[in-house]
Amino acid sequence: MESTRFMDHLQVLLLSFLESGPCITAAMIRQVQERTGGFFDLQPEDLERALQQLEAHGQIAVGFHATTRAGTLQKQYNLTAQGLAQLQTRKPELEHLSCILPFLLR
To answer: Does the reported pTM lie above 0.70?
Structure first.
């Protein structure tokens, strides 16, 4: 898959995940793999690049979440109003992606 197209699809997936609430990086990687049946074998650097682009466009905000392990902090991503508007605009793309993934996974 062309890298720009991959990144576009990944970004709309990430926005859709964040619609249900804040999320940390590891959980997003799991969600992408689960919801795409492993079609997107997401590497942390790909996710980080997609998140940086979404943040640069004001579509997500980054905060920090304290873990229960030794009080360490993890990045937590939240959907912004601008991100929600972008997601609404791209819903047809997301629906199309959801429809074609089962065929790609055969």
So the answer is: yes
